[in-house]
Specification:
The complex is a heterodimer of chains A (126) and B (172).
Chain A (H helix, E strand, L loop, with lengths): L1 E5 L3 H13 L6 E5 L2 H10 L4 E4 L8 H8 L9 E6 L4 H8 L3 E6 L4 H11 L6
Parallel strand pairs in A: 1-2, 1-3, 3-4, 4-5
Chain B lengths: L11 H19 L3 E3 L2 H8 L5 E10 L2 E10 H12 L10 H23 L5 E3 L3 E4 L13 E5 L2 E9 L10
Antiparallel strand pairs in B: 1-6, 2-3, 2-4, 2-5, 3-7, 6-7
Helix pairs in contact in B: 1-4
The chains are: A alpha/beta (126), B alpha+beta (172).
Chain lengths: 126, 172
Amino acid sequence: MRILIVDDSSIMRTLIKRVLALANVPADDILEAGNGAEALAILESKDVQVLLTDINMPEMNGVELLQKLMTSDRWKRLTRVVISTDGSASRREEVAGLDVRCYLEKPFTPEVMRDVLNEVAGAPGA
Amino acid sequence: MCSTKWPARLGRDAVDLMLAAVTAVAERSFFAVAERCDETQFAKLAEGEPRWIVATVRFTEGDCPGILTCILSEELAHNLFHAFAGEDPLDPPPAQEQLFDLIGECANMICGTWLTRLEDRQTFNLFKPVVRYMLDRSPLVLPEGTMRFTLNDMPLAINVRVAGGAPAAAWG
């Protein structure tokens, strides 16, 4: 399983990778991107099963990335998880129609992240 | 002029929510204890701290801009880094880039959590935090409306400015 982590904070990407390892999530390859545009470039060139994306990022934010992914059947089986400081009902509603499997609000405990990852690791496409 | 309607007063309610936000971030991300702190206690804790870090997060709540600023001692910053990274507190301090990245993310999470609790029906946008060392060695003169806390008994000050609204009331 190949996982793509999208967050403009390198320390947050490192934390997520560490939790993935501690949770024994069966990931063969973990990729990283600092914004939606970088993520899209990776998704266009590699077969990714799980996407973990922040919302507030420069150049292309998480919502714009998710909207882009809806324009093609190519990413139909991509499991999408949002990880964001914006836990407002409005934001959750905004992404609800963008095929998001889970919405994880920062700050999160490693245990909560682990549970979410274990759930999506068994999702279709993963 | 912002069309976003801020709460009628950025007073006690907003400060209570900020404490709740700081507590959530402290506990979940850093396994730290957050408490409110009055001016006198803060000054005492701040005395002798050689270096301070300032993290600023610009945000828009709807179409209304604002700025959240966190000021913390370098010692607290190192403490938070070791906790976040799962390292021993006695490990060598991190590189500045890594440290600033973490403190920026901390400010980001505090700001986002506060905004979510302040107005759940309004989306917001956060801009990349700007983190720097404070040039002035003394942080004791803080802007009006600054909120004072401790994380693991170390000083943390937070100031919020919003367009068209009053600053959050000072505490204590």
